[in-house]
């Protein structure tokens, strides 16, 4: 069968998600299975691709004894690497090869009807974000605006911790728990919003199965914990609650969470300004000039009189 005949194309329109990283207002993305264009090969015939196996922002033994070097050797060294390698094999030579990792995640989510690279792309994104959610001597409490918003939206810092722990502990099977800043307009072009009745501009806790990432719901992730078994089995065996408690008490980088909150709020504010600009342009384009209308009506009258 010819490659072109075997190609299966799926497309979607990028609406709201354009503001998450896509440029332009609306575009079509086409995934062509079995299609390989502009395949790049190094001089020795090795296929090259772009997504990196990004290391954590600390040495692999820096979180001991809470998260051991052995866990990093497997989790970062083998699991994370496998997602990167598999993703690069999937996207090389396709339109996705030139996109950012975030764009690939959003493009391949495809309203929940996942395109082939989604799981690997999202798992690469999720793991990078997870490593950067921790630091040596982390844990404790945040401060400043982050702490104030946690108190505002959960009642107290302790209530937030309990809700986050519960989400992580009750995610059945593999997945993730998240603290996110939710500032969308409920008009999510690429996904089903899981909390459509919630207020905007607030912090919420959500959990997600497998590789799903709240970016696809148009939320801004601030903190995550990996609750796939490979994340904790070497250090905690089947004691997922102990792993979650250790993460919250000893490992969370509240500095990273605060920086992400600042960026999320700035992004939401920029989106509001952009929407306001578009609204004004739309209104301006649909308004009738009262003076022109008067002239038009007067012209009708003249015609009638002439008859
Ligand atoms: Fe993982």
SS element count, helices:
10
Q: Unreliable stretches, pLDDT < 50, 5 or more residues?
A: 1-28, 33-45, 292-307
Counted beta strands: 5
The computed structural class is mainly alpha
Strand order of the largest sheet: 4-3-5
What percent of residues are in strands?
5-15%
Instruction: Give the proportion of residues in helices.
Output: 40-55%
The whole-number mean of residue pLDDT values reads 81
Description:
- The chain is mainly alpha-helical and 307 residues long.
- The protein is built from ten helices and five strands; from the N terminus they run H-E-E-H-H-H-H-H-E-E-E-H-H-H-H.
- It has a three-stranded antiparallel β-sheet, sandwiched between helices. Strands 1-2 form a two-stranded antiparallel ribbon.
- Helix 2 runs antiparallel to helix 4, helix 3 (101-109) packs across helix 4 (118-131) and helix 5 (144-154) crosses helix 6 (157-170).
- The chain is globular and about 65 Å long.
- The model is unreliable at 1-28, 33-45 and 292-307 (pLDDT under 50).
- Fe (ii) ion (FE2) binds next to helix 2.
Would you spell out the secondary-structure blueprint of this structure?
Elements: H1 3-6, E1 9-13, E2 28-32, H2 69-91, H3 101-109, H4 118-131, H5 144-154, H6 157-170, E3 175-182, E4 202-209, E5 220-226, H7 233-236, H8 240-251, H9 254-286, H10 290-306
Helix pairs in contact: 2-4, 3-4, 5-6, 6-8
The site of fe (ii) ion has 7 residues, from helix 2.
Keywords:
single chain; mainly alpha; disordered N terminus
Short description:
46% of the residues lie in helices and 11% in strands.
